Every structure is written in structure tokens, then in C-alpha cells.
Amino acid sequence: MVPVWRRAAGRLNGQVLVGAGALLALALVAWLAPYLAPHGPNDQDLLATLLPPAWAPGGDPAYPLGTDALGQCILSRLIYSARVTVIIATSAPLGAALVGTAAALLAGYCGGRIDWLVMRLVDVWLSFPAIVMALVLMVALGPSIGSVIVAIVLVDWTRFCRVVRSEVLVARQRSYIPAARIAGARHHSVLWRDIVPGLVPTLIALVGIEIGVAVIAESVLSFVGVSVQADVPTWGRMLADGLADVFSAPIGLIAPMLCMVGTVFAASLLGEGLRHLNDAYKQRQGGAA
């Protein structure tokens, strides 16, 4: 008999494994930042500014990727910046999924006027450019990691609401829903026992995609200076700082850009792989029905 873990691993495709592995490695780097970083994220050496990488002429082995205009170690700031990325990439998608799913369940299950009101709210919300709304929210909330998470949740909950609502509308037409109601099941029992479990694969796929969106959103906000506090390193802030010295020290711009692109690429692989698994799951469920 094949073990359960081996059957589950066999269903995973290469995209899921590569994407999840890269994101787990990023989380591990963020967790071990004090042990991996050669310097503190805000330590300055004004006698060693704009140093090239250690392998380039004029480089210093104490600063493997060189220093920025303030003499701060670029590698150390990259490693510590991963902490902000990991926190936001895990919290914001889960928060958006929670809010969007709650609204979708309310609209899709109740139907009628409630469905109309919720979807009109979604349409109005989507009429505003996402980045403009996020900037306005950050100005109102003030710079902090919590504010960034709230801003991303309030901007992206509509993505979950529209997709999950369509799933709820399909599930509501299944024969077992009226049967459960006839048997005396309450509405909340029908939702939690009969509808919500079927939404889990779709939610997992959406969360995987939303991770990359959250990383990009935080980087944009920190690039314009309205993300976290000034003493907290982020890849977006490193991009903004490196842009000023791109010709004399391009590594300060290239390094955080590669980190951000790599993280978004890993999240895209994970989301795409989970989407394929979700489609296969739906096909099996349709065949079984």
C-alpha cells in the first residue's frame, strides 16, 4: 500500500515544489537573519561608501555585495528586508482571503438584494486604481507593517470575493444543499459543512497568486516612502536608494530588484501550480458527480 504522503507528493507538480521551496527558503533566511547577515541592517561605515562587490576590483570581503551611499552592507539589508516581505506575503493574502470569502459567502448564499449590494460594492471598489487606493490608505493609516497589511487587504479582498462568489453560486445549486435544508440543517451549518470545504482548493490557489501581488504592492509602497518606518529595511526602499547611484554602484539597484523578481516568480509558480491542481480537482469532482 502506497503511503499517504507519497500519494500526496505524486499529485504535486514541479511548479508547486519549486515555488513552495523557494518561498520556504526565503522564510528561513528571514528567520535566521541575525545569524546570516554579516552586519546590522543599519550599521554605517562612512569611510566605505559605495563599495563594489567583494569579487570586483576595490571590493572588501567584509561586504560581500558592497555598500550603499551610507556605507551600509547591501547583503545584510537584503537579508533583513526579507523579514518584511515574509510577514506581508503571509498575512496580507490570508486577510484578503478572509474578508473576501466572508463577503462572497454572504452574497452567493443569500442571493437577491444582498448579492446585488455586495457586488455593487465590489464594482465601486474596483473602479478605483489599486495603487492609488493603497497610497491613500497608507497616508491615512501611517507607516507600519500593520498599516501595509491592512491597506493590501482592503484593496485586494474584491479579487477573492468575485471568484469565490461564483463558486458559492455553483455549490448552492447542488442537490445536497436543498436536501440538507429539508433535513433541518441551519444556514450556518450548511455553509460550514457543505459549502466551505469545497472552496478550500480555490482559496489555496488564490492565496498562492496573491502572495506575489502582496510582494509587489509592498515594494511599490516602500519605493515611494509610505510603507514601514524609515529604520526598517525593505527591498522597495533599497531600490529607491540604489536608483540615485545606479551609474556609480549599480549593485545597489540590481540586488534588491533580483530578490523581488525572484520572490514574485516563485509565488507565480506556486500559484500557477496550485491552479492546475485545483482544475484537476474540479474535473475529478465533476466526473464523480
From TrEMBL:
Keywords: Cell membrane, Membrane, Transmembrane, Transmembrane helix, Transport. It comes from the Bacteria. The keyword Membrane applies. Pfam families: BPD_transp_1, OppC_N. It is found in: Cell membrane. The keyword Transmembrane applies. InterPro entries: BP-dependent_transpt_permease, MetI-like, MetI-like_sf, OppC_N. Residues 82-266 form the ABC transmembrane type-1 domain. SUPFAM superfamilies: MetI-like. One of its GO terms (biological process) is transmembrane transport. It is a multi-pass membrane protein. One of its GO terms (cellular component) is plasma membrane. The chain crosses the membrane at residues 12-33, 84-108, 128-155, 203-226, 246-270. Belongs to the binding-protein-dependent transport system permease family. This is ABC transporter permease. It comes from Verticiella sediminum. The lineage of its organism: Bacteria, Pseudomonadati, Pseudomonadota, Betaproteobacteria, Burkholderiales.
